[in-house]
Structure formats: structure tokens, C-alpha cells
Amino acid sequence: METDAVLRLLQDVAAEVVTPRFRALGRDDVSSKKRPGDLVTVADREAEVLITAALVAAHPGAVVLGEEAVAADPSLLRGWATAEHAFTVDPVDGTRNFVKGSPDHAVMVAELRSGEVVRSWIWQPQHRTAYVAERGAGAWRDGVRLDAGTAVPRTRGRTGTCCGVDYPRLATGEAGWGVWLKTKPWDHAPGSLLLTEAGGSVGGLHGSAYRPGAPPRVLVARSRDQRM
Questions:
Q1: Going by C-beta distance under 8 Å and a sequence separation of 6 or more, which residues neighbour residue 108?
Q2: Going from the N-terminus, what domains does the chain have, and what CATH number goes with each?
Q3: pTM above 0.90, yes or no
Q4: How many CB atoms lie within 10 A of CB 74?
């Protein structure tokens, strides 16, 4: 799929099954995963099914790693990182925010070639803002190229919302740094490319490079003028 087509896919799916549930979730529309407080909604499940189906139809040989699919079957993680062609899907990043009625959530996809992120998409449906990145070609917000070192920040503190909001804040220079102990690929693969293409950095505490298939135990991200 062309880059613009994937973005339209995320926008269409969000409009169909995510946004109609925003601040309209019923009691039976929200449940917990294995860990207490780790929520999933009907919007997460339906969005992942639709996005996955479209990616598989367009790229029959690719491995599509969805957050909810892995929650149901962790064995799906085996071998995906070494696949020649793969995608990660986070159908609603920031589910707790979504459940609470916060607009700070996103739909995210990353494309990988031999374990390296080559394209990524972050769509924030309530903010109506799209972030797209292509390896070696740059990062954009709504079609405007980003540079994490030139924006005038509202704050230079750390992030702390959800990856679909935090990485864009780093990429635009609105935040200076972020630290994560949870390093699931669907959370970090999209934003890591966005940030690095905007001039920032993502990796381990001691400067090791970030790879979605073998992330460091602690992941650190910084905007351009606060590199590791």
C-alpha cells in the first residue's frame, strides 16, 4: 500500500469503529486483559481486525503483529522480528485515556523490513492530526516536515501520556525526553521512526540502538537537542 493509502486506512477505520465509541462506551464494551488495569475495548478489537485484514490483503506475504492478537496468543511474537516484511498494529494506543474520555489516544501502524522500521503512521482522531515517517525521507505532521530541534516547545519536561501522543510531542520539540520500561513493538516502532527522522534519538540508557525485535530493558527517547 502507498503511504497515503495506509494513512487513509487508519483514518477510515477510526471514523468507523473508534470515534463512534469515544465517550459512548457501554459497560460491556470494556474489559481487562491479564494484568489489572490493562484495558481493552470493543473499539480496540474491531479496529485491529479491520486494519489487519486490509494490510494482509495488500501484502499477502507480510507478518502483521497486532496488539490484541498477541494478547490472545503470545506465541505470535515468535519469529516476527526476523520476518522479511512485517507490520505492527496498535488499534487504540492510550486505551485508558480513551476509556476515560480523554482525546489523547491514537491509531498506529509501523512497517518493518528485516526487523528495521521503514514507514510509520500515527493518527490522532480526536485531535485530527496525522504523523507519518519514512526512513531516510523524513517525518511529517499533516504534510509539514518536522524537525525536533527547531520547534518552540511548550515544555521541555518528560512525556507521560501514551506513545501515540508522547512521540509526536518529542518529534515536534514540545517535550524533551521520555523513558519507558514497557517496550512492546506496537507501542514504540511507529514513534521511534517518527522521532529519529525528525532528528531525535531512541535507544537504551547507554546509547544502544533501538530495534523493535530486541529492545533494551529501559527505552529512552530524546528530541534533537537532548540526544543521548
A1: 10, 88, 89, 90, 93, 120, 121, 122, 123, 163, 164, 186, 190, 191
A2: 3-226 (3.30.540.10)
A3: yes
A4: 10
